[in-house]
Amino acid sequence: MSSGPSTYVPATGLTRWLDSRLPLMRFAHDTMLTFPTPRNLNFWYAFGAILTFCLGVQIVTGIVLAMHFTPSANVGAVPGSSLAFDSVENIMRDVNYGWLLRYVHSNGASMFFLAVYVHMFRGLYYGSYKAPREILWILGVIIYLLMVATAFMGYVLPWGQMSFWAATVITNLFSSLDQVVPHMGSAIATWLWGGFAVGDATLNRFFSLHYLLPFVIAGVVGLHIWALHVPGNNNPLGIDVKGPQDTLPFHPYYTAKDAFYVGLFAILFAYLVFFAPDFVGNPDNYIPANPVVTPSDIVPEWYLLPFYAMLRSIPQKLIGVMVLGGAILTLAFIPWLDTSRVRSNRFRPLMKQFFWVFVVDCLILGYCGSKGVDAVVPFFPALQLVWVARLGTAYYYGFFWIIMPLVGLIETPKPLPDSIAKSVLGPAQ
Amino acid sequence: MATLTTAEPTRRDFLYIATGAVAAVGAAAAAWPLIDQMNPTTAVLALASIEIDLSPIVPGQAVTHVFRGHPLFIRRRTPAEIAAADAVPVSELIDPLARNANLPDDAPATAANRGIKPEWLIVSGVCTHLGCTPTVSTPQAPEGAFGGWLCHCHGSQYDVAGRVRKGPAPQNLDVPVYSFLSPTRIKVG
Fold first, then answer.
1. Residues of B in contact with A179 (CB under 8 A)
2. Which residues share a beta bridge with B120?
3. Distance (Å) from the C-alpha of residue A359 to the closest C-alpha of chain B?
4. What pLDDT, in 10s, does the model give residues A161-201?
């Protein structure tokens, strides 16, 4: 780690003995206690800790839920139901505190995505993807992709109507490859299903992978934090740390600050779990999966709605799937699409406006994705909502591939402060 | 210039490449069972064909059966519906191919090529976009503008011959292999 020479001094005989064999305490001391952190990090920088909290909650609740879950689409005791569906209902009704564990886990997914979106927009606003943090950003994009895959497979497990049809629609995205190489896409879909349709084999493998992927995420999070600790944190000013006067030790300053915001986040989380546990869920998922009846309005969970709107806005199958995949892939190129030499949008008057339009654009796309296929614009019944989604998709791509490179070249940024310390403490420093 | 020429490959270079090649082939061979285990088992592949009794179906009625885990649409068409399907020129269709497993791959999507008897339309109930089950359209409760089916997931529309008339679906509904065992009984698969 780049925090300079280690300042760890083993205090006891035991820690001296350990330090010369496995310097675990030294590692923890240097990365979590003395690590020099910019002194001006604001509220938005607490989401790294909040996300770590979320991952921990999902892993712990997930492990205990797996002790009661049956990954089988075979018909259970209730006609028309399945062993999987019945086992989830058993968790909800009979397992001690099962209702709490499952509601924490299912709402935990939403809280996880809420936090990751704030974290991503924060990185976008303060230019945290710019050199020397490109790898850090790309590892974040990989974590986000793994989160989407994990959340999708977890959503399939209760084997309700939304589970089944989400699995059908998402795996069928691959069948669009038939338009590139005949039969290739269908062969991939059949391979994913383990049959001619989504069924028992699909449910079993999704359960296996849903259990695996969080640990893969934890591994990539380790790399993400490693890549963070090489250049150190970016900060709201987007300027480099110039010396010790610009930093504070991570502990107690940021351990305390992060803990406070994790507490606030946990209050919001608890409100959802205890007072609106089905607020983010779709009631149709309490209907057991029926392979011959698609629900009249199928929508993904809220955190994927913007991408769903993009998919639906394109009337051609293969291009629609490419636009969907490209929207996430685009994120990996941001470090090289932004041509500005200034990181933080605080000093970028023009880019700042495009940024906030982009935030609103994502919300509008989410709204479009939540409505039916033939919905119209509120108060303008003559205008099909799909045209708004098309405009929104165009702005999403335009923001990254046109606005970002161009604005960096034409914009005159505001003057940057000399140092973090001068900005925070005044010119006397 | 002799110093710039590369050295002759040695026996050690050969051994490096040979060892690497054997390891790569071995790794690929070991990976294949791990990949192929996800494909359908022989028990799944051996799914028998099914027989369906058509006699309870009245003209204008559409029913859904299950074939290989997917819905199968059976529709007894009225003379008006048959005439409507016949009236559509192939040049107007999004997918000009019949997609009928009983015919050659390049058969055009005429109404006649979409089945065996004009009265009976037997097609897979899997939307060719992303696999949802489209909703049937009836004169009493129309779904979409083409009288056949509307897929609520992403808005694809099909006509009374199961041909796609409005995207994003790229293909007509598949016609599976089937035959008439008697005037009121079919075997599918």
1. 170
2. B76
3. 25
4. 999 999 998 898 888 888 888 889 889 999 999 988 899 99
> CA-based Rg of chain A, rounded to a whole angstrom?
24
B52, two tokens? 């369906």
Q: Are B168 and B94 in contact, with CB atoms under 8 Å apart? A: no
Q: What is the pTM of this model?
A: 0.89
β-strand partners of B178: B188
Residue A169 is nearest to which of B71, B132, B155, comparing CB atoms? Answer: B132
**Residue B1: what pLDDT?**
47
**pLDDT surpasses 60 at B113:** yes
- Residue A198, judged by CB atoms within 10 A of its CB (0-12, 13-18, 19+), counts as buried
pLDDT tens column, A264-301? 999 999 999 999 999 998 999 999 999 888 887 788 99
What's the CA gap between A334 and A357, in Å, rounded?
Answer: 17
Q: Kindly report the CA angle at B58 between B57 and B60, in degrees rounded to 5?
A: 110
Number of Cβ within 10 Å of residue B105's Cβ equals: 10
B70 is catalytic: no
Chain segment A196-228, per-residue pLDDT in tens: 889 999 999 999 999 999 999 999 999 999 999
Question: Do residues A368 and A309 touch, judged by C-beta distance below 8 A?
Answer: yes
Place of tokens 């003209």: B59
| pLDDT tops 70 at residue A3 | no
Please identify which of the residues B65, B70, B152, B154 carries the catalytic annotation: B154
What the block records as the tokens of A407 is 């604005």
Distance between CA atoms of residues A43 and A50, nearest Å: 11
| Residue B67, beta-bridge partner list | B70
The answer to whether A416 and A349 are in contact (CB under 8 A) is: no
Report the half-sphere exposure of B118 (CA within 13 A, side-chain side).
Answer: 12
Q: Write the CB contacts of A128 (distance below 8 Å, at least 6 apart in sequence).
A: A122, A136, A137, A234, A343
DSSP-assigned states of every residue in B81-150: HHHHHHTS-GGG-SS-B--BTTS-TT-B--SGGG-SSTTEEEEE-S-TTT---PEEP-SSS--SSSEEEE
pLDDT digits 0-9 by tens, B4-31: 556 788 899 999 999 999 999 999 999 9
Give the pLDDT confidence score for residue A2 in this predicted structure.
47
Instruction: Give B175's DSSP letter.
Output: B
Considering only the beta carbons, identify the residue of B70, B133, B153 that sits closest to A293.
B133
Distances (CA, A) of A170 to A145, A309, B3, B131, B174: 14, 14, 60, 9, 20
